[in-house]
Please model this.
Amino acid sequence: DTAVSQTPKYLVTQMGNDKSIKCEQNLGHDTMYWYKQDSKKFLKIMFSYNNKELIINETVPNRFSPKSPDKAHLNLHINSLELGDSAVYFCASTTGNSYNEQFFGPGTRLTVL
Amino acid sequence: SQQGEEDPQALSIQEGENATMNCSYKTSINNLQWYRQNSGRGLVHLILIRSNEREKHSGRLRVTLDTSKKSSSLLITASRAADTASYFCATALKTSYDKVIFGPGTSLSVIP
Model:
C-alpha cells in the first residue's frame, strides 16, 4: 500500500499553462511538504503545512499556490508555467515537525516546453 | 552557501567494498538525517542521529556525528550493487523545527 502518493508522475506542458499536482498520504501524518528537486538533484523545500495550516513558504513565486483540503492531502497549483519550473516535485509527510523522519512520494517530473 | 554539504559529490566502488560519505553543516542542529534516493524515485529515510549522539548503527549502515566539527559521516559496509543511489544528509536546525535542509547529495555507484 502506497504511503505517500502523487499524481501525475509525469507532466509535460507548454509555457504559460496552469497545472496542478496532487499528493495524498495514508500514514495519519499531520505535516506535509512540497519540495523541488532541480536537475543537479538539489532538493529545496517550498511549502510546509501542519494540520491544513501553512507553516513555511520559502519565498516561492506566488504563481505557486498550495492547498490542503484536509490533513491527508496537499495539492500544488502552478499558474503561468515558466521554463525554469521544470523540475521534479516531491511531496513528503511526517508526524509532528521536521525533527522526525519524512516519508516521500515518488515525485512528479514537470517539463515545461 | 548551504547548511549541509556532502563530500564527495560522486563515489564509485566495487561491490563488497565500504563506502564513506561525509556531510558538513554550519549551524547548530537538533538532529541529522540521512536519506537515499534511487534513480527516478523518492527519498527514503535511512537513519537519524540526534545532536547528543555520537554514533548509530542500522544493519550495514554506520553514522557518526561530531558536533564540534559540525560534520557527520555515513559508512555503508560490504556494499552491494543495490546500494547504487544518491545519498543526502538533512539537518534539522535547533532554530527551526519546521524544516530540514538537504545537502546536494553524494552519488554512489557500486560496480558488480
Q: What stands out?
A: The mean pLDDT of chain B is 92. Chain B touches chain A through 25 residues (CB under 8 Å).
